[in-house]
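Hi F.,

I've been meaning to write this up properly since the lab meeting, where we talked about keeping a consistent format for the predictions we share between groups. The idea is simple: the sequence comes first, exactly as it goes in, then the structure tokens exactly as they come out, then a line or two of notes. No screenshots and no reformatting. I'm using this chain as the first example so we have something concrete to point to.
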Amino acid sequence: MKKWLFIVIALVLLLALSATLGYALSRGDPAEKLSSVIAEGYLTSSPTFTFDGMADTLRLLETERLGCPYYWAFEFEFQCRHAGYGDRSGQALAQVITPHTARIVVQEGNVTEATIDDMWDMIEQEVITR
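Output, unedited:
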């Protein structure tokens, strides 16, 4: 009798574990979700966004899995209250709502590339020269 009860309990636990795992996998790749959170956090703590970014306009546009596991590119759009990039404290600023697109690459939990409008290097905090 004890052996039968043990088998039933083991089967119920196995079914519950399978259902939970299936549900978790159907909700997307956990590594992708974590990388997305890292990318968004990087963007929202960047000087451009913290200076005058409008949080209610931030939107994830695209997620791209790059060649290796744990390697993602995220494209966001957001707006700022003034033109320009970085911390513009002390500068004369045009008061115009400015749309931006940011691309942030996360590899194994680290931001390896971050640009705004393909013109501003968020890591180096400088204009991109080509």
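Notes:
The longest strand covers residues 53-65.
The chain is about 35% helix and 35% strand.

If this format works for you, I'll send the rest the same way.

G.
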